[in-house]
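Hey,
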Amino acid sequence: QDTWTHTKLESVYAKARAMSDEFNEYKASTKRTWTHEKIELDTLLGDIQIKRVTYNLAPFVPRAGLAPRDLEAAWIELAAAEVRHRKAINHHIRQSRDALQRRYGSEANSIQSVLNNIAHALSALSGELDTQLATVTSLIARARPLGPALSRLSSLERMCSDANIDEHDYTVYSVSDLEYDAEMTMKALEKKARFIENQSAVRNMTNLTPAQLEEFEATFRYFDRDSRNALSDAEFRAALDSLGHSFSDDEFLMLYDQLVCGDDAISFEVYIRFLVELTEDQTTPEQVLQSFRVIANNKPFVTKEDLRLDLSPKSIESLLREIPKSDLDKNGYDYLAYLRNVFQ
């Protein structure tokens, strides 16, 4: 009882739960041992009194403080102390559970507040494209720390589960709810950033109509299957085909090799500029001839060494399969004959 009286209880669920488990262990072990001893003692004292009556002896009188009524009073006081200790433990368990719910609710509501603020700022975008892009970039920076915050909240949710807290009094948001909202918010921000970047790429291309530019952009978005704002070789070719620009396998290989970015894909800016140039200035036989003359340094044939200055080895190999050998030089290729065949 002295130990219970001087024990400092804390409103931390794990510690309060440990105190409760310790008390339950006391009741299942020490208290039952005492109960057994008390019953045995009461029985023994009764037997002694019966014996003394049998032999006409004076009744047995225990020493002061050890009479049955004294033991019963101590037993009753012990039971009252147990009730007080159990009540104190339960009080701290309830306090700790409430504190845990408050902490979880505060964290969850704070995360949702950040998400709400980001969504509001995203919907209120205005001004020049550069300003909008800077705003979206700053919103992405605000959203990134939500990952660690959600991890902390997940730990709190496990602690609540351990405390048998299934429903929360201070929030309606679960970790699953907030993780989904955060994922959708980040995707919306990244999509908006790509959209603004794409609009920046087309805003100065005024030689085409808005309808043409919109068609190019819609086609790009359709074939950009993984939404990375870039097209693979297959996606790029499908986009060109859908717009009515068909190329042979060799022609497409050369084209893709010239346009491809560092990550082996066609970025939106490269794509849109290529289509604008293709639409504004369709290539004529004279232009192709002039290009070959420049590469060949005005020779009537072209060599591998000439082509290496402008094309990749893969493109050169593909092109030279189509160009006949020149009669003028054993290392030369007759690009004039090739062009006559292509544009006949």
